[in-house]
Design a protein that fits this description.
The chain is α/β, with parallel strands linked by helices. The protein folds into 2 domains: 55 residues, Arc Repressor Mutant, subunit A (Orthogonal Bundle), CATH 1.10.10.10; 184 residues, Rossmann fold (3-Layer(aba) Sandwich). The strands form 5 sheets. Strands 7-6-5-10-13-16-17 form a 7-stranded parallel sheet, sandwiched between helices. The radius of gyration is 20 Å and the shape is elongated. Helix content is 40%, strand content 25%. Helix 10 links the parallel strand 16 and strand 17. The chain has 10 helices and 17 strands.
């Protein structure tokens, strides 16, 4: 089989599943592991897939709609929400971005907290967490109707006026190869700034984000950032996280 034919098969396999192993590809292609590994390296350099230990994953260029994301790994996000809610005291100030995990956290906080001060770009989240708050500030900017959230330069300018005890943000993906990634420059820049504006920054990522690589690499999180997840990341991701001095809570 010619290289271009192998590339086509590899890309087809990667497109059909979250991750594909070198072992399965060797069986499919009838070639050596070394040949498959080199093929994956070539395709990764061309930006057509992401190379991970033992295989490859797709580079995701667009996030699923929020209506779909809230249904994905709901149990895991509920565990994350309970863990985060236990870390947040009453009367705390919070910067919270939009996302399915942060929505679940808002739901948990609304049940058991009071006196919160919340700064968010998510309209649905603001309404959901309202009963637990003394004050809610919606960061104004361009409204993304699909996400029911605001984005753009205006949001970052508004955010710069506030400082909070905690920041809770989502991440599009987390991998050993690329670290934290997202699906748009706007979202990545806003989330990075949110982390910078808090005393205790937190990134929420359930295990469905592990190995996912979005097309935008997020800036390195501030020292002391806490990764809150439902499952322990694998060894490669943990080693990469140690280099950024992140704490892991689960």
């Amino acid at each position: 089989m010619l290289p271009d034919e192998r590339y086509a098969v590899i890309l087809d396999e990667v497109a059909r599943q979250p991750a594909v192993s070198i072992r399965s590809l060797t069986e499919r292609l009838g070639v050596s592991r070394e040949t498959v590994r080199k093929d994956i390296e070539t395709l990764a350099k061309q930006g057509k897939l992401a190379q991970i230990r033992g295989g490859a994953t797709p580079i995701v260029t667009q996030e699923a709609p929020i209506s779909d994301r809230v249904l994905r790994n709901a149990a895991g996000k509920s565990r994350i929400a309970a863990l985060v809610a236990a870390m947040i005291p009453d009367n705390a100030s919070l910067i919270i971005d939009n996302g399915s995990s942060t929505l679940e956290v808002a739901r948990a906080l609304s049940r058991r907290h009071q006196g919160l001060y919340v700064y968010t770009n998510d309209l649905k989240l603001a309404e959901l967490i309202g009963p637990a708050c003394r004050e809610v500030v919606v960061l104004g900017g361009r409204l993304d109707l699909a996400e029911s959230a605001t984005f753009g330069v205006e949001v970052i300018e508004n955010l710069s006026r506030y400082r909070a005890e905690f920041a809770l943000i989502s991440a599009g993906g987390l991998s050993a190869r690329a670290g934290f990634t997202d699906f748009s420059r706007e979202a990545a820049d806003l989330r990075a700034r949110m982390l910078e504006q808090a005393e205790t920054p937190m990134i929420l990522a359930d295990h469905s984000k592990f190995g996912v690589i979005g097309q935008v690499v997020m800036p390195e999180p501030p020292v002391g950032t806490i990764l809150v997840t439902d499952e322990h990341p694998d060894g490669d991701i943990l080693r990469a996280l140690k280099n950024t001095e992140l704490q892991v809570a689960r």
